[in-house]
Each structure stands twice: as structure tokens, then as C-alpha cells.
Specification:
This protein is α/β, with parallel strands linked by helices. The chain contains 15 helices and 14 strands. The strands form 3 sheets. It has a 6-stranded mixed beta sheet. Strands 3-2-1-4-5 form a 5-stranded mixed beta sheet.
């Protein structure tokens, strides 16, 4: 039997109790990297128990799904988002951290790297102290070292397409190679440290960079490198090089190809497809940062961009690397995204503005998204909401 959905069900033991009794589980997953990781952790735990499931990413129109099945004894689990469900996993912090604990309650040995990557899409704060971090450290799966948080060893590819940094070379592997001058790979800490210094200078020293860029780029440096467990317990090369790089791929997939991101989190062999989505997403986002038409207001920068731009990532990059104001609103023809450097109640304000423009909006304190039918009415309403 499914249990009644309440906010308390976000607790790991409440979700675990519902999943333990379920004959079939239907996941409804928000289109963000943290929710994808959480769904992957729970889906893997159900696979170990032999419980069938279906997972769908709620991303605008028709959901992207995987592993369909049919049974009368269905429990619907919502991870993020606003859909109704029997059980909700939507904690105030990271959903993937909560899912890691839930999977343990179910008797699984969940992947701590997936949980850490999901958590990192929510906050750039240090990962130390979480159950997943302690598990990864105890199993010697992570090691902090000099360098940059990218998903592969090739710095030309990684730096060109990371959305953790915006610099003059972003989106262009050839420009990265020219900047690095033959340092596309690194085998020693000294070489990695030298590349990190070059990246920090490129991001913070750009002519139109803000002082905030120097702070933000630091989050991409000294990453946690990943190793996998082999059959004898020793560490081997992992699917992704760093936790931050893995998180970047998850977040890009959530926006670009949510079905691929979900399959990646569940454990399917879709690494190449995920990296392809990550590259495409990054190229469009970095191009939008350069070409957006901006207007500065008190505490707010409004950027206009074309319909092909990934609005949320563009807003985040502008806010972190280019905006002199604490809030950025990126506006397309029928949609918008907002990012803030501190708590600004953006979700509520996006909802208010979208409602005034015959649309809808949602979000959190520092991130927001909206759809509308009248962009001018939306912008005017958002400016009033921010006043």
C-alpha cells in the first residue's frame, strides 16, 4: 500500500518504510541534478531488492521515462518539484544526501560518489561531514588534489565545456589549448596546480569580470578526484575524473537531456551521451553569456537572449562571473530564469511576476524559473517584485 504523502515523508526512514512495502514504485523527478542523483540512488536500491520501478523526469511537457512496468500495488514518489505523490523526498537540503540515507535504510550500499555529485549541484559548500562523504573517504574513493573540477583528464575538453567557470576560452577547445600552451594533460600535482593558476587568472582577470568571479572560480579548484572500487577493494579509474565534474554533467543533463541524466544516475552505460549533452549545453550557455543584451538596475541585471540559450545556466554564469548586481534575470521569448548571490526569495518573486504575465513560476531562495505569454509584462512585474 502507498502511504499518504506528507512533508514529513522527506525523512529517510519514512521514505524507506514506504519503499520497503511497495510492489511497484513510480518516481516523479524534478529536472535538476540533485533530484536525478537522488532518483538514481533509490532506483539502484530497489533493483537490489527486486522491486520494479518507473522513473520520469518532470521537465515541462512530456516526461522522459525509463523502465516501465505495471502493477496494482503502486507507490508514487516525488523527488523535488510540485506534483502530488504518495511519498515526497524534498528535504530543505540535498535530496541526494537524503536518498543516500534512505538507501542505507533499505539495506543497500549506495554509491557515495553519486550522492556527493548530486549534493554539489545544490551548493558549492564543502562536502565534508555528510554520510556520503564519510563513506567515500572510508572507501578511499576520493582524494582532494590540485587542479580543476572537470569530468575527464583532457583539460582542453574539460575547461572548454565546464559550466563551473566562465573565461575567455569557455566554449572553445582550441582557445583552451592556446591558453594552456601544451599543458592539456597533467600527471603531477605541480602540473595540476599550474593549470589551476592559469584558469583562476583567466576567469578573474578578464576585462569584464567582477570581483565575485575570483571568489566563484575558487569553488572549481582543488577538486575531489574520484577512484572506483575494484573487486579486491583497491581504487581504479572512475567514470568521471572529479566529483565537481560529475556534478556539472548531471546538472547539464537535467537541463539538456533529462532522460539521459536519469539513465546515467540509475547506472546505465550512457557516459558518452551525457558528455555530449554537457558539451552542447556549455557551448550555448557560454555563447549566451557573451551575446546577451543587458540592462542594469538597482540590485538587478536583466539580460535578453535568444530562445536557444539555456536560461538557468546562463543566469548562474552571469551572476557568478559578470554581473555587478546580486541578482540576474535572463529572459527569453516565453521563459526566464533568475540567479542570486544570496537569499532573495526568487522562487516566490518569479511566481508572482509570472502570474501577472499569464504564466507560472517557481524556485528557491537563490534560483528561479518562469514561463509567461507576455515578456514585457513579466519583466515589469519582476522588477516591481524585487523593488
Amino acid at each position: 500500500m502507498a502511504v499518504a504523502g506528507r512533508s514529513e515523508d522527506a525523512a529517510p526512514d519514512g521514505v524507506a518504510a514506504a519503499l520497503r512495502e511497495a510492489g511497484f514504485v513510480r518516481f516523479r523527478v524534478a529536472a535538476d541534478g540533485d533530484a536525478l542523483a537522488a532518483a538514481g540512488l533509490l532506483a539502484r536500491a530497489l533493483t537490489e531488492r527486486g522491486t520494479p520501478f518507473q522513473a520520469s523526469v518532470v521537465h515541462g511537457g512530456r516526461p522522459a521515462t525509463t523502465n516501465t512496468a505495471d502493477t496494482n500495488d503502486t507507490t508514487t514518489v516525488r523527488i523535488g518539484g510540485t506534483e502530488s505523490a504518495d511519498v515526497t523526498l524534498d528535504p530543505p537540503g540535498s535530496a541526494s544526501e537524503a536518498a543516500f540515507e534512505t538507501a542505507r535504510e533499505l539495506g543497500s550500499d549506495p554509491d557515495p560518489i553519486l550522492a556527493l555529485a548530486g549534493a554539489l549541484t545544490v551548493s558549492d559548500a564543502a562536502l565534508e561531514g555528510s554520510a556520503a562523504f564519510e563513506a567515500a573517504r572510508d572507501q578511499t574513493l576520493i582524494e582532494q588534489r590540485p587542479g580543476v573540477a572537470i569530468p575527464m583528464a583532457d583539460f582542453a575538453d574539460g575547461l572548454a565545456h565546464t559550466t563551473l567557470v566562465h573565461a575567455g576560452f569557455s566554449g572553445d577547445p582550441d582557445a583552451v589549448r592556446e591558453t594552456l600552451a601544451g599543458r592539456e594533460t597533467a600527471d603531477t600535482d605541480e602540473e595540476r596546480r599550474e593549470i589551476a593558476s592559469i584558469v583562476a587568472l583567466a576567469a578573474a582577470g578578464a576585462e569584464n569580470a567582477t570581483p565575485r568571479a575570483a571568489e566563484t572560480v575558487e569553488h572549481a579548484l582543488r577538486p575531489y578526484a574520484i577512484g572506483e572500487r575494484s573487486d579486491d577493494g583497491s581504487a581504479t579509474d572512475a567514470e568521471f575524473a572529479t566529483v565537481g565534474g560529475y556534478a556539472d554533467v548531471l546538472r547539464a543533463c537535467a537541463h539538456e537531456r533529462p532522460g539521459t541524466g536519469l539513465a546515467l544516475a540509475i547506472g546505465h552505460d550512457v557516459r558518452d551521451a551525457a558528455l555530449s549533452a554537457w558539451r552542447a549545453h556549455a557551448k550555448r550557455a557560454h555563447a549566451a553569456v557573451r551575446t546577451a543584451t543587458t540592462a542594469r538596475h538597482r540590485n538587478l541585471v536583466i539580460a535578453r537572449t535568444d530562445t536557444d540559450a539555456p536560461l538557468a545556466t546562463t543566469a548562474r554564469l552571469l551572476c557568478e562571473f559578470r554581473s555587478p548586481e546580486p541578482v540576474v534575470l535572463v529572459v527569453g521569448e516565453t521563459g526566464a530564469a533568475a540567479a542570486a548571490t544570496d537569499d532573495r526569495n526568487l522562487g516566490t518573486r518569479m511566481h508572482e511576476a509570472a502570474t501577472a504575465a499569464d504564466g507560472d513560476g517557481t524556485g528557491s531562495e537563490r534560483r528561479g524559473r518562469a514561463t509567461f505569454t507576455d515578456d514585457e509584462a513579466f519583466v515589469a512585474a519582476f522588477r516591481e517584485a524585487m523593488a
